[in-house]
Design goal:
It is a single chain. By secondary structure, this protein is mainly beta. The protein has two domains: 19-88, Roll (SH3 type barrels); 95-291, Porin. The chain has one helix and 21 strands. The chain has one helix at residues 2-14; strands at residues 32-37, 42-50, 54-59, 63-68, 72-77, 83-84, 87-88, 111-117, 121-127, 132-138, 149-153, 156-162, 166-178, 185-194, 199-210, 213-214, 219-229, 232-242, 247-258, 263-271, 281-291. The strands form three sheets. Strands 8, 9, 10, 11, 12, 13, 14, 15, 16, 17, 18, 19, 20 and 21 form a 14-stranded antiparallel sheet that branches. The chain has a five-stranded antiparallel sheet with strand order 4-3-2-1-5, with no helix packed on it. Strand 15 (199-210) and strand 16 form a beta hairpin. The protein is elongated and about 65 Å long.
């Protein structure tokens, strides 16, 4: 499993050119689309006509705009919910996870995301299909005097129950530690997400394991995100778990700063099992997308 995980990480991180594809022109003129040009401009509207050299985009603010095919970087379908009070809100580079935990949405086929938290925690996820994604992560402690290094795989199946409203995710985190004979550990989980990608609440249920031993009680999670503007969203991720003699709660609150090619998460985690003290543990992470949906 370790050799496979390392090979997958190298493929996903370095294999972007292998997933490159020609720009596809949608034939459906009723589909709202975003046309991105190579010089960084974006036109939101309906593609009404096209010929060998140009496409015509009917926009709300500029009327019909002629765009040369050779100048187009990408054409992406857009949901009407992304138009808020006449302003286009681009999709967040990271919409399938909160600070760390997953939700019911999945990456689309050809999409990928690299995540980094506090420099040491690294993870790459890739959409194999619209309903299945897989990721690999590592804490590369071996760079420091050959220390043991955790490594994990994160496959997930995403099932849309109602488009952009109700999504079910089933997956797992399967981990081991390089340099130790401690065996494998991780969890399997299910996620139910209510609401669109940038304004939702998520309910999760998972069971952890270590070796051949499984937990007797589930890990329960309640998470959510609420986008307040084009470049910012409020976010929370919370867990209830069994410590052996009682239940403990891990709370979090923070925000996601949404850029065009990167998102930055910042927040505080509050473990409640701290002897009565209210301690906030800071969280800082980034997500960088790569690839392109097919």
């Amino acid at each position: 499993m370790i050799r496979f995980a390392l090979s997958l990480a190298l493929l996903l991180a370095l294999g972007k050119p292998a997933f490159a594809q020609e720009v596809q022109i949608p034939a459906d003129t009723t589909q709202l689309s975003v046309v991105e040009t190579k010089d960084g401009n974006e036109f939101v509207g309906y593609i009404t006509r096209m010929d060998a050299d140009n496409i015509i985009v009917k926009t709300e603010n500029f009327g019909e705009v002629r765009v040369k095919r050779q100048s187009i970087r990408a054409i992406r379908p857009m949901e009407k919910s992304q138009m808020v009070e006449g302003q286009y809100w681009p999709e967040s580079p990271q919409s399938t996870q909160y600070f760390f935990g997953s939700n019911g949405y999945g990456l689309r086929q050809g999409e990928g995301v690299y995540q980094n938290t506090w420099v040491f925690f690294n993870q790459v996820n890739y959409g194999v299909s619209d309903n299945f994604s897989i990721g690999v992560g590592i804490v590369p402690l071996f760079l420091f005097a050959g220390s043991s290094s955790p490594i994990w795989l994160t496959p997930k199946v995403s099932v849309p129950i109602k488009r952009d409203q109700v999504n079910l995710g089933i997956g797992g985190l399967f981990a081991t530690v390089l340099g130790e004979n401690s065996g494998s550990f991780g969890q399997v989980y299910g996620q139910l997400t209510l609401g669109p990608r940038d304004r939702n609440i998520n309910f999760g249920l998972g069971y952890g394991y270590a070796g051949s031993d499984w937990a007797n009680t589930p890990l329960i999670s309640v998470s959510g995100i609420y986008r307040t503007g084009k470049k910012f969203a409020l976010m929370t991720e919370n867990y209830i778990f069994d410590t052996g003699d009682r239940n403990a709660v891990l709370l979090s609150f923070g925000g996601r700063f949404i850029g065009k090619k990167i998102s930055v998460d910042a927040g505080l985690f509050f473990p409640t099992d701290t002897g009565g003290e209210f301690i906030g543990v800071p969280w800082l992470g980034i997500a960088v997308p790569f690839g392109r949906a097919k």
